[in-house]
Each structure stands twice: as structure tokens, then as C-alpha cells.
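Q: Given only this backbone (163 positions), what sequence would you predict?
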């Protein structure tokens, strides 16, 4: 079953419905919802059906408590090439963050792309391919939760901080 059909009505509905990049293995993509649409932390995965491995994990975190973990994640793992503020939404080759607010309360959305094997540079998807999927996930989650002021990451792909 195509990912869009498998994910209909789930937390993965919109990311699975966009045009997905070709899977490097040549196999079709699979979609695995991990939570219901109303969980306090939502999640789903895009998988490589040939290997069964997770290619991308999506999660939505709701509440003001979620800002700090995301800011830490960005501060320790992304080198803003333009001097960017790591408290803002951004994308690297490995993951991306989008944000939204409703009545002053935060929501944070993450897409994390996995490596295909032990070489971390050999990823299923590039940061450029990951970003539209994050945008679709964040838009869907924001609509479902009545969030406004959705802020996706810019088109800049920042380098990953190593060591």
C-alpha cells in the first residue's frame, strides 16, 4: 500500500502524502505511526521497506517545557553558518526543527534523518530532502492542534557540529 494510503488519518498523514524522494535502496517507503494524533508527544517514522530500517523520525512536542530541549539539541549539534540563532527553527543535514504557538504556548516539531549504515554521512535523505517533509509534518500537526504562528526553518542547511 502506498505510504499516503497507509498513513491516512494518522500522525504521518501529511508527510506521507507529499512527493517523497526516491528511496536510495530502490524499495518503496513505509510509514509507521507511533502515537495517536492527540498525544502530548506525537511521532511517526518513514521506513525503508527493503531493510526495515527507519529513514526519518518525526515528532511533535507540545507545551512550553519543549523549548529548552530543542534549543539544547541545536546548540550542541548545529553550527549556524550564517551566525544564526539556535533558538530559532533551522535545518541541518541530520535534522530540522519547526515551531508554532497557540495562546502563548509552544509546540516544537522535529524531523531526524537516519544514516543508512555505520557511515553517518550516508543518509537516506539530505537536509534539503528532509526540510519539505518536516514542513508537511509541522503544518499538519499545527492544524490538528489549532496552533498558529507556525515557523518552519529557513531554506539554509546548516552544517552539523562534530566533536
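A: Predicted residues:
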Amino acid at each position: 500500500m502506498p505510504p499516503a494510503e497507509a498513513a491516512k488519518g494518522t500522525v504521518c498523514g501529511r508527510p506521507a502524502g507529499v512527493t517523497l524522494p526516491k528511496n536510495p535502496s530502490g524499495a518503496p517507503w513505509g510509514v509507521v505511526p507511533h502515537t495517536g494524533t492527540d498525544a502530548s508527544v506525537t511521532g511517526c517514522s518513514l521506513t525503508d521497506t527493503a531493510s526495515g530500517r527507519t529513514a526519518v523520525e518525526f515528532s511533535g512536542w507540545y507545551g512550553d517545557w519543549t523549548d529548552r530541549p530543542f534549543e539544547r539539541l541545536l546548540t550542541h549539534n548545529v553550527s549556524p553558518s550564517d551566525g544564526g540563532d539556535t533558538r530559532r527553527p533551522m535545518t541541518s543535514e541530520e535534522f530540522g526543527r519547526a515551531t508554532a504557538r497557540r495562546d502563548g504556548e509552544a509546540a516544537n516539531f522535529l524531523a531526524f534523518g537516519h544514516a543508512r549504515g555505520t557511515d553517518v554521512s550516508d543518509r537516506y535523505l539530505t537536509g534539503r530532502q528532509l526540510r519539505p517533509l518536516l514542513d508537511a509534518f509541522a503544518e499538519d500537526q499545527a492544524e490538528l492542534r489549532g496552533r498558529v504562528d507556525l515557523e518552519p526553518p529557513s531554506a539554509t542547511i546548516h552544517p552539523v557540529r562534530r566533536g
